[in-house]
Amino acid sequence: MEPVEVGKSLVVRKENSYGVISDETIANATLDCDQFVSSQGYDAIQATETEREFPLAYSIVVHQDAPIVERLLRAIYMPHNIYCVHYDLKSSAEFISAMKGLAHCIPNVFIASKLERVQYAGISRLKADLNCLSDLLDSEVKWKYVINLCGQDFPLRTNAELVSDLKELKGGNMVESKWPRAKTWRWSVQYVLKDEKNELYGSPVATSEKKLPPPHSIEMFVGSAYFTLSREFVNFVHWSILPKDFLVWSEDTYSPDEHFWATLVRVPGVPGEVPRTDPEVSELTCKTRLVKWASFEDLLYPACTGKHVREICIYGAAELRWLLNYGHWFANKVDPTVDPVIIECLEEMLGEKQLHLQRKVTH
């Protein structure tokens, strides 16, 4: 928050004086895996014994901008963790090639075995994560928790710090989960994704058909698409009839990813249950990711110093201290074409912490 340094970062942003790397560049770089892994430092990353005893899994749903996806992967990478990447079937050939290259070169990174054409506010967004969760359960890595991310997320904590926080959950889930209030319209009627000519709409469209109540007398909650889930809970979702029925019921709702997880973690008796008697778990209480909405700026948090896209702040460098001090694990959203300095600062901060930890391990 040094005023002079913040000013310098604004000059960099205004001048657009940084280079933009293309998807094709990442794809070409992964043609030589040994060189790529070495040059990007993946082979030098070491973990403590505490970290190795508490492996993590990631579901990363992406659709564009391979360079920032690679930077995200590098920032969260540990050789004992496991990473599922789901790319959108609508993505460009160059982006898909880059994702396949990253999965080919980096150990324990793989492409989801089943891929979706992801449609805004449709069931496909939820299914993308479910596809990855299924693959992650089948992997040889016996991970303790899974976190889902998108391409514009970036870590605010090292893997060691994340493991320390996750251990304190003692098997509980970290999911935004609130009473639905004015959002019941999302499942009060059926929504369709295609018109009579079988052509896709831009987003789900409401019909006049009323929906039946959710199965098993499930009480509805809303939250976000993003989660931190225990392995035991994911097993419950994968194998039990209740979540399967709830998924089928949710297929013709609006933005089911924003009520599916929020509701299931409240079901009495599920692993890592969030009791219905607990206060609402808001996005500021849920540590998984820190999002800044335009409508809440100056009320809940300081104004965005980057740029707004669809009411969400893409962070600027002047928000760095706020991001690091708030206690969350990931920041959403970052974009080097909006502000490259904040990502470089976060990379440097994480790198210094990791280097300090590795020196302690080796000595």
TrEMBL record:
Protein's membrane topology: Single-pass type II membrane protein
Pathway, per record: Protein modification; protein glycosylation
Protein name (Swiss-Prot/TrEMBL): Beta-1,3-galactosyl-O-glycosyl-glycoprotein beta-1,6-N-acetylglucosaminyltransferase 4
This protein's record includes keyword Membrane: yes
Record's GO cellular component terms: Golgi membrane
A matching Pfam family: Branch
Family that this chain belongs to: Belongs to the glycosyltransferase 14 family.
The keyword S-adenosyl-L-methionine belongs to this UniProt entry's keyword annotation: no
Domain of life: Eukaryota
This protein's UniProt keywords: Glycoprotein, Glycosyltransferase, Membrane, Signal-anchor, Transferase, Transmembrane, Transmembrane helix
Compartments, record wording: Golgi apparatus membrane
Main location: Golgi
A molecular-function term among this protein's GO annotations: acetylglucosaminyltransferase activity
